[in-house]
Specification:
Layout: H1 2-10, H2 13-28, E1 33-36, H3 38-44, E2 53-56, H4 60-71, E3 74-78, E4 83-87, E5 96-100, E6 102-105, E7 114-117, H5 120-125, E8 135-137, E9 146-147, H6 152-158, E10 160-161, H7 168-171, H8 174-186, E11 189-190, H9 192-196, H10 200-207, H11 211-222, H12 227-236, H13 240-243, H14 245-250, H15 275-285, H16 290-299, H17 304-319, H18 328-335, H19 340-350, H20 353-360, H21 371-376, H22 383-397, H23 404-416
Parallel strand pairs: 2-5, 10-11
Antiparallel strand pairs: 1-2, 1-8, 3-4, 4-5, 6-7, 8-9
The chain binds adenosine-5'-triphosphate and magnesium ion.
């Protein structure tokens, strides 16, 4: 009864109601349905449950259709993976992944798995770690029944990250990143036999993985509260060597990474990456040469915007000493050409006040005169236009012009020449 109570007390009532509705429908179709994976783990650890992972022994797409018929909402189906995503109308458009229990096989080490529909037991056995391989049944008569064939609860109590079988890291070496990520997040230890499996054999398979898969794992690390500690553990088990040799010598001290608050505006980030991830990549690689950055960017299939952000930041940081005596207008015209996220990153590591001033004020300073005003004064649009406006902007930035009247006088004198 303990888990039934834990569920009732930990989930908010609208979420619980949603689980009941889904479970009732699944039960009517004769499909036992379970909460699995991360949601069970986090429930037992008394941590907030972010997404509900629901796995049923049966056809998730059929269940999805039945739910839409009864409760409305939208359904997306993925026939190949036997999954459906249901967005109910009620319950402030929470998105629910309905998953058919499945078996996964690997055609060769490091391959993406082949998926076939199967039992819950098989579904748990394809998973990464024992603590992620528990299930709690949620359909009515069975609500709260734990299914834990791999002894995840015991490892949770012992605070251990343990793989399910000795080939786990060969099948999928991205699990090495996941092991360290969970260990750091929960303050757990990687169980000694599991730790031994982080060896040259699994490093070799890891080295052959695609850049996208590897980068995604590191992206996830950057979303954690303490990425530096995770990077450090990965260095300690000598994993980066297999990703890109340069990363192993780059270091892992990212003190500012741990909470880069976005105090100086909104920044453009590459597709699929968050602000936190982007700034973390920039700070991690900022002291490398352009050549080294290019190498890593190629290996990890960086989006162009990310490569540019890292290279710009790295160059700016190296150039800072030579900008010491620059006037605000010089700073501004130079920094205008760089991604502002790069400027922000360099500000975080250098605390150079000009970078702060640029982001907070200078970048927004514009003269009152516009191109239209110049046209109205009979000037032909052309390079001279830009020069005049730039001159006026510089005068404001450098404090040579402080009022509309002063700008008007400066403009008059510029036009005379
Ligand atoms: P998080 O809190 O980081 O989201 P999670 O446990 O929910 O943790 P997900 O990446 O959302 O992790 O994956 C959901 C579940 O799928 C995991 O609990 C795990 O059982 C399984 N899983 C995910 N990635 C793998 C993998 N590479 N190999 C095996 N099982 C995996
Ligand atoms: Mg999850």
């Amino acid at each position: 009864m303990y888990l039934a109570d834990l569920l009732k007390n930990s989930l908010d009532s609208s979420l619980l109601d949603l689980i009941h509705r889904i479970a009732d429908e699944s039960s009517a179709l004769g499909f036992p349905i379970h909460l699995v994976g991360g949601s069970v783990r986090d429930l037992m650890l008394a941590r907030p449950i972010l997404d509900l992972d629901l796995t049923l022994e049966g056809d998730a797409i059929k269940l999805g259709r039945a739910l839409v018929k009864k409760h409305g909402g939208d359904l997306t189906t993925h026939e190949k993976f036997f999954t459906a995503t249901w967005t109910p109308q009620f319950s402030n458009s929470q998105i629910l992944d309905l998953i058919s229990a499945r078996r996964e096989t690997y055609s060769h080490p490091g391959a993406l798995p082949t998926v076939t529909k199967s039992t819950l037991d098989d579904d748990l056995r394809r998973r990464d770690f024992t603590i992620n391989a528990m299930a709690i049944r949620v359909d009515s008569d069975h609500f709260g029944e734990l299914y834990d064939p791999l002894h995840g609860q015991s490892d949770l109590e012992k605070k251990l990250i343990r793989v399910l079988h000795p080939n786990s890291f060969l099948d999928d070496p991205t699990r090495i990143f996941r092991a360290v990520r969970y260990a750091e997040r929960y303050g757990f230890t990687i169980e000694p036999e599991t730790l031994k499996l982080i060896n040259d054999d699994s490093r070799k398979v890891l080295a052959a993985l695609s850049g996208e898969r590897l980068r995604h794992e590191i992206d996830l690390i950057f979303e954690e509260p303490n990425p530096s500690a995770i990077l450090k553990q990965l260095f300690d088990v000598d994993i980066f060597r297999a990703v890109h040799p340069q990363l192993q010598v780059t270091g892992y001290e990212l003190p500012l990474l741990d909470d880069p608050s976005r105090t100086l505006g909104e920044f453009v980030v590459p597709d699929m990456l968050t602000f936190k991830q982007t700034i973390a990549w920039v700070l991690w690689l900022i002291d490398l040469s352009t050549l080294e950055i290019d190498g890593i960017s190629e290996r990890l299939a960086f989006p162009v915007l990310l490569t540019n952000a890292v290279i710009s930041a790295s160059a700016l940081k190296k150039d800072l000493p030579s900008f010491k005596n620059w006037k605000p207008s010089q700073w501004t015209f130079h920094l205008d050409e760089l991604p502002s996220l790069s400027v922000y990153a360099v500000y975080l590591v250098s605390k150079e006040s000009a970078l702060h001033d640029y982001l907070a004020t200078w970048q927004h300073v514009k003269p009152l005169t516009t191109g239209d005003d110049l046209k109205a004064r009979g000037l032909e649009p052309g390079p001279r236009f830009g020069e005049i406006l730039r001159h006026l902007r510089a005068a404001w930035l450098d404090g040579e012009v402080k009022t509309a009247e002063e700008e008007r006088q400066l403009l008059a004198s510029l036009l005379k020449n």
